Predict the structure of NADH-quinone oxidoreductase subunit J.
Amino acid sequence: MSLLNFTFYFFCTMVAGSAITLLFVKNIFHAALALLSCLLGIAALFILCMAEFSAVAQILLYAGGVVVLLIFGIMLTNKSGAQPIAIGNTGIFGGVLVGGSLFFLMLFFVNKSIFILPIQKPSAESNTIKTIGVELLTDYVLPFEITGILLLAVLAGAATIAGFKPSKN
């Protein structure tokens, strides 16, 4: 077994293990840490697939942003001195049924597929991050700006809804 295969299987096991841990852990803070581990493992798999931009976006947006937001939300809403927030698992039968059927469906399609792709070594000229950046700011600048304005509107709406307190008149 080569080092590349070992690394791939290690990170796949890490992602699967942390995802399963996320399902069955009772403490919400530990669940956030399991989510962080899962997202970082996916970023490592992106790096192994030579998708550097996706790996950096995974780390910055998901592992950096979403998990930090979750942890701050947990710390700010948890009363000091109180018991930690417990997570209840409901609908386990339906979840196992849907997850198992999707797993076997995916296994069926993977077994029917033929993966004969040659491994290509990246050339020194192929810089995917530069290519994506140039494409975003030349050909796709209008959708990029519209997405930014839409996200700003969503942020303003969320702040308005969160700060809304009905009067007791």
